Amino acid sequence: MKVIIFGASGLLGKELIGQWPDDEVVGLGSRHGDIRDAAKVGDLVEEVCPQWIVVAAAYTNVDECESHPQLAFEVNRDSAVNIAEAAKRIGARLLFISSDYVFDGKKSSAYQTDDLRNPQSVYGRSKAEAEVRLLQVLPECCIVRTSWLFGTGGKCFPDTILKLAATRPVLDVVSDQRGCPTYAVDLARAIVELCRKDARGILHVTNAGDCSWFEFAREIVKRAGVQTEVRPVSTLQMARPAPRPAYSVLSPDSLHKYGISMPTWLDALSRYLQERRR
Ligand SMILES: NC(=O)c1ccc[n+]([C@@H]2O[C@H](COP(=O)([O-])OP(=O)(O)OC[C@H]3O[C@@H](n4cnc5c(N)ncnc54)[C@H](OP(=O)(O)O)[C@@H]3O)[C@@H](O)[C@H]2O)c1
C-alpha cells in the first residue's frame, strides 16, 4: 500500500511514520509545500498516487487561532478540502484528523460520533467546518476525532508539566475540564489499522478512560517521582484566549465496531515516560 502523510513533521505525523513499517509511506511537512496551495497539493498527490492520504497537518495552536482566524480556516478547513479534491481526482482514500473541540463540552456522558457539533473556539470551528466540507467532497472519507494528544515528537502537556515541575514547588492545574489523554503512538497504530480495514465515516480514537487536566498532571508528577505539589484550580482562574470544552470525553463505540480497543491513558503515560527517559 502507498500512503501520503501530510503533517509528517508534527507530533502525530512522526509516530505515523514510525508505526507504518510495511507500506510505502511518503511523509510531507510544510518544507515540502504549503497545503494552502491547491496546485502544489495536487502535484504532490498525483506524483505519489497513493491508496491512502492521512491529513495530520493542521494549525494546532488553539489560542493563536483566536487571533489568526483566517489562517486557522485556511490551514485547517480549506487545505483539507484541497487535499480531498486531489484525493478524489486520483481515487485515493482520505483519513482526516479532527478534534474533540468540535463539541461544546456541555454533555456529561461520552460524546458519540453523531452528537451535534457546536464548537466554541476558532480552532474548533475550523475543524468542524472541515469535517462538513470533507464529507461533501468525499462522502466515503474517514474522520478520526482525537483529544489531548501527547508524545515524544513535540510539545505536549506531560512534557510541559515535567519541565515546570523541575523548577517549581507548586503547580496550579485546571480541574474542571475533563477529557481523554491520547498517546500519539497508540493513535498512530489505530490509524494504520483503520486504513488497513478500509475504515470510513466519523470515528473517535483516544486512549481509554478519562481524567481532568489536574488528575493528569498529578499522575505525571507522581510517576516521574517529582516532589512538586499539584493544586486544582478552575478554568476561570486560568483565563486563556480560546474557550475549551468542559467535558470532551469521546466514546470508543465507533472504534470498537472495527474490532480495535485502545490501551488506558495510565498505561500509555507509563510508556511515554519510559520513552522520554531514553
Ligand atoms: N495536539 C492535540 O492535543 C490534538 C488534539 C486533537 C486533535 N489534534 C489534531 O491532530 C493532528 C495532529 O496534531 P499534532 O499535535 O501532531 O500537530 P503538530 O505537531 O502541530 O504538527 C502540525 C503539522 O502540520 C504541518 N503544517 C502546519 N501548517 C502547514 C501548512 N500550511 N502546510 C503544510 N504543512 C503544515 C506542520 O508542518 P511543519 O512542522 O513543517 O511546520 C506539522 O507537520 C492535527 O490535525 C490536530 O489538529 C491534535
Key structural traits:
278 residues, alpha/beta, six-stranded parallel sheet, two-stranded parallel sheet, 10 helices, binds NADP nicotinamide-adenine-dinucleotide phosphate
Description:
The strands form 4 sheets. A 6-stranded parallel beta sheet has the order 2-1-3-4-5-10, sandwiched between helices. Strands 6-9 form a two-stranded parallel sheet. The longest helix is centred in the N-terminal third of the chain and has 22 residues, at 69-90. Helices cover 41% and strands 17% of the residues. The chain contains 10 helices and 12 strands. With 278 residues, it is an alpha/beta fold. The relative contact order is 0.16. Strand 4 (93-99), helix 5 and strand 5 form a beta-alpha-beta unit. It has helices spanning 11-18, 38-48, 62-67, 69-90, 122-137, 157-165, 184-196, 213-223, 253-256, 265-277, and strands at 2-6, 24-28, 52-55, 93-99, 142-146, 149-150, 170-174, 178-179, 182-183, 201-204, 211-212, 229-233. The model has no long low-confidence stretch (mean pLDDT 97). Bound molecules: NADP nicotinamide-adenine-dinucleotide phosphate (NAP).
